[in-house]
UniProtKB/TrEMBL annotation:
Source organism: Algoriphagus confluentis
Name of the protein this chain belongs to: DUF1735 domain-containing protein
Signal sequence, renumbered to the chain: 1-21
Keyword Signal belongs to the record: yes
Lineage, uppermost ranks: Bacteria, Pseudomonadati, Bacteroidota, Cytophagia, Cytophagales
The entry's keywords: Signal
Superkingdom of origin: Bacteria
Length: 311
């Protein structure tokens, strides 16, 4: 038995020795013949949204770094292409035009040395007006929630082309490369309605009136949504002799200046509203719930913060 163990030990050592020797063999791989591509590293996303209320001054702007075997010098041109996208409820995505179109082209001379890296960089911007015109639309055609899909196409001096349709997932999404070649630019409607407002409820379901203040608190997870400190604007306190609003969850929703009300009170009744009139100084709404309660409220704007033109 000892002899068997001894022989097995010698055999195992021989295997280790042969294996270690084989690891030192240099593989015969022609590294010098490998091709080298190019990509555009995203250094800064300076502006990647269009303001629905200020399209004339909105822009898409990036700072890019050309990465290749010659520190960016192989870049010949970079095409900036765009198409418009809209989600049609119940239908799906609608693209205008069907395929993206050229909006502008960067030249090799646009890429310049920089103090932070050895690669050449460029900063550029495309105005919302230029993008809208390129896809054959007008500002009047644009709606909040629309998306402009910008796509970059890098053409190098060897006649090669690099874009989102031939980039690897790692190069497109990994933080080191940060080169998606495609950038969605959403048309957003900034909303800034958080605050405490004075109001007069000129009509209620019990025929009485009430004045007071109400707080709109922004919902962090839902841009444009605000919880109300009292969904009845004080109507419960006068109609039900001091009954507090309590822990109801009723919201005002601002979608590009179109106001709506949603949510329920602590009894589970849901709420809705209609804008009656809107001036910079006074917003008049009618609210109601599924229990049959209702009211007409005049909400005053705060100093230095006029109401937008609501619908």
């Amino acid at each position: 038995m000892k002899m068997l163990k001894y022989s097995f030990g010698l055999f195992a050592m021989a295997l280790v020795f042969l294996s270690s020797c084989r690891d030192t063999v240099t593989p015969n791989v022609p590294y010098t013949d490998f091709d080298n591509g190019a990509y555009l590293r995203t250094i800064a996303r300076t502006s990647t949204t269009f303001n629905f209320f200020n399209l004339a001054n909105s822009r898409f702007a990036l700072t890019l770094e050309a990465v290749d075997n010659e520190d960016g010098a192989t870049v010949e041109t970079v095409e900036i292409r765009v198409r418009h996208r809209r989600l049609i409820p119940g239908v799906g995505l609608e693209f205008t035009p069907a395929n993206d179109v050229l909006v502008t082209t960067l030249q090799a001379s646009d890429f310049q040395p920089n103090p932070d890296s050895r690669f050449l960089r460029t900063s550029f911007e495309v105005s919302a007006s230029a993008a809208i015109s390129a896809v054959g639309l007008t500002p009047a055609d644009i709606e909040g929630g629309d998306v402009f899909e910008f796509r970059l196409v890098l053409n190098d001096k060897f006649g090669r082309r690099f874009s989102s349709d031939n980039v690897t997932t790692n190069v497109a999404g990994a933080p080191f490369y940060a080169s998606p070649f495609q950038y969605p630019v959403s048309v957003i409607c900034p909303s800034d309605l958080e605050g405490t407002y004075e109001f007069d409820q000129v009509d209620t379901f019990c025929g009485r009136t009430v004045s007071g203040s109400i707080t709109w608190t922004a919902v962090a997870s839902t841009p444009g949504a605000y919880t109300l400190s009292d969904g009845t604007f004080g109507a419960w306190s006068v109609c039900y002799t001091g009954t507090p609003w309590g822990n109801g969850n009723v919201r005002i929703n601002d979608a590009c200046n179109v106001l709506s009300m949603s949510g329920t009170d602590r009894f589970g009744d849901s709420y809705s509203m209609t804008v009656i009139s809107s001036t910079p100084e006074l917003l008049t709404i009618e609210w109601e719930n599924t229990y049959g309660e209702f009211g007409t409220v005049e909400i005053k704007s705060n100093a230095g913060k006029p109401w937008p033109s609501f619908r």
